[in-house]
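Sample log: Glutathione-dependent formaldehyde-activating, GFA.
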Amino acid sequence: MLGETALMTYTGSCACGAVTLEISGKTLGTRQCWCRQCQQIAAGGPTNNAIFRAEDVRIDGELSTGEWPAASGNTLTFSFCPSCGAQIFAQSSARKHLVTVRIGVIDTPNDLRPEMAIWTEEAPAWAQIDPRLENYPRQPPPPQAKA
Ligand SMILES: [Zn+2]
Ligand SMILES: [Zn+2]
């Protein structure tokens, strides 16, 4: 039986396959974000994200990046495939040791699912937000590294 220390590995790719990912290690937390900027990059829905240690994430393939100021005052840099436009991950200037990977590019089946919904005050009126999720109207506290 696998213990707590078992190495978790995830693989993934963008929609066109030009960018591939390999992640070793457990997520530090998963979030569904309904902020306006996420709606704009996610075709109206939320983004679904899993936070990992940057050192645990290996990306192969060319990435393009963009950035915007986050509501917190930090700068959010997001990386995407220049060929298909798929969002791969984001990184905050305040937490360079972490990467926020878009769950959609991680191969299924996997055990990742949002455990909290954030920025729900910006969600559209028609949004169906799972009431079982921890709910933050705006930014939640930063993830704590689990020992
Ligand atoms: Zn692609
Ligand atoms: Zn967002």
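Observation: The domain at 9-136 is CATH 2.170.150.70 (Metal Binding Protein, Guanine Nucleotide Exchange Factor; Chain A).
Observation: The longest helix spans residues 36-41.
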